[in-house]
Amino acid sequence: MGTMSHLHTDPPRAWTDEDGPVPPDSWGRDLSPGRALPWGFMLVIVLLVVGRFALAPHLTSAALRTWATIFVAICVQALPFLVFGVALSAAITAFVPASFWTRALPGRPSVAVPVAGMAGAVLPGCECASVPVASGLMARGVTPAAALAFLLASPAINPIVLVATAVAFPGQPLMVAARFGASLTVAVLVGWLWLRFGRSEWLRIPSRPHDGGSKLVAFGEAMRHDLLHAGGFLIVGGLAAATLNVLVPREWLTAVAAIPWLAVLVMALLAVLLSICSEADAFVAASMTAFSPTAKLAFLVVGPMVDLKLIALQAGTFGRAFAVRFVPLTFALAVLVSALCGWLLL
Amino acid sequence: MNRLSQSLVLALLGGAVLRISAFSTTYLNYVKPGFRPFLIGAGAVLLILGATGLVQAWRMKEGQRDGPVHDHRNEDGAGDGSMHVPGAGAGDGAGHAHRQGHGHEHGHGHEHGHGHEGPRVAWLMCLPVFVIFLIAPPALGSFAAARSDDTPRPRSQALSAFTPLTGDGPVDMKIGEFIGRAWDDEKRSLTGRQVRLTGFAVPSRKQGQWYLTRMQLACCAADAFPLKVAVKGVPAPAADTWVEVTGTWIPPKFEKMPNGVVHPELSATGLVKIDAPAEPYED
């Protein structure tokens, strides 16, 4: 490293002067993360194919197999909804300019909040995408309260999520209606409360994100990014649901489920912990057969609005002062409204 | 998680989904039959995303490797370096990030410059692939059936929906239909009729009987529930054995339905072992 200053002044000569140890110690370094990876994956694939025949016949414990079936079932059932939802949401992120929103929303903030909430019903936004979209809206001059209403509503009540809910709860159309009603109510209420009591210094409005480059590239990038995020958390949810299903004795679940308020609270907290994407959460909720419909509704309403992944995203985007106020408010309202809706409708 | 591994994870998952949906009927162990086109679509999208990402990453890599090599050849002529320098050039670019030269821009820009770092949680997407290939989860069997005793009543059919059973000889019937006719048919059409039911065996805690069972899906295998008929008169096969049972319904002796879960009973006369059906769940 004694040649450092020399390298700075005369970069091209670096290659000629670096005839140090043979072979240079950077050889191994180059191989390890970059070129070794494909080989590592090839090895994994070979192992998978071999394991299919060598290992699978021996992994026959009934509990393990049941766990695996439930886990794979949740992943496989939710995946198409996830892929489709992410694609649409990425298309909106990439192809609809944010200036469209400023023009489409009414000028009066108190009216703009419910309109923005309703816009969530037509425009799919994956919840990971909804935070950057909302911050983009604010950066382009949309009232923060309206942007927040959109942020809460769009992952919860968009058409793909509603279809997924209908598929997960066949023969129970009221579950879809209750999810729609409760989520929209919470989104609008939070928006109005923020309009009335919120202070601008709590909210750090990010600077306008630069948009450059081709829209198709932006679409591909947004889709890949959301898919990796949402897919990872879907697996977390599937793991937890399958484990609950197989490991936790049924009597415990029925005992918790028998106390209505506790069941609602437990499912709401579970939604926060699991952080499942809204396109996929209905299938996890439906698998919790021990719980009442109201408790499942709480899971479906809380999940898209408050969960660990969203809290992290919101705190990172809008600042911690915002998150410590916004998150508890949303959680409390979501639990209350879904309990009320469940009591009325289900 | 760099771009290459992101793409590989996506491609692996897409491949696994296609493997169970497009190229076999394994998906029937997990979801309903009508879901196949959506699975194939989703698997294809994942595979395409992964494959295009791989091609891009490969090109970047090639560009990154080519850069320093050209550089070297221009500066150094066709000297001794051609053997070891390509490796050294690329490695220096990534390793000594503070260098101002050519290698810096390529090696460093790829890793961090465009914000392509994926979330670490995405690694979990490998897990279903491992489970699909290594455990090869079968359709739910007696373990799941024995766990969930809170069987919801079969979807209510209008009473008139029970058509009279015609013909002679044993009638092939779904277990769900048998249960429906056993409890809800006012004309008691099952009385004295031989029926043939298909399902797998689940041991019972009561002496002298076992359960002929078929799982039904509400949506997917995660919310499956068992349809059970208590079989008497033939010895119980090993748990999870698929069988066809011929027999007649035993009308209940009670007038009013007792509390708790009650399964209709069948007095069996014949039992044939069969292979597990391709569609393991009753629709």
Automatic annotation (TrEMBL), chain A:
Principal location listed in the UniProt entry: membrane
Signal peptide: none
CC annotations in GO: plasma membrane
Subcellular location: Cell membrane
Membrane topology: Multi-pass membrane protein
PANTHER family xref list: UPF0718 PROTEIN YCGR
Record protein name field: Permease
Source species: Planomonospora parontospora
From TrEMBL, chain B:
Transmembrane segments: 38-58, 121-146
Entry keyword annotation includes Transmembrane: yes
Pfam hit, one: DUF1980_C
Segments of this protein annotated with the region Disordered: 62-115
UniProt KW Transmembrane helix keyword: yes
InterPro entries per record: DUF1980, DUF1980_C
All copies of domain DUF1980, residue ranges: 188-281
Compositional bias per record (Basic and acidic residues), positions renumbered to this chain: 62-76, 102-115
Record keywords: Membrane, Transmembrane, Transmembrane helix
NCBIfam families xrefs: TIGR03943 family putative permease subunit
Listed name of the protein: TIGR03943 family protein
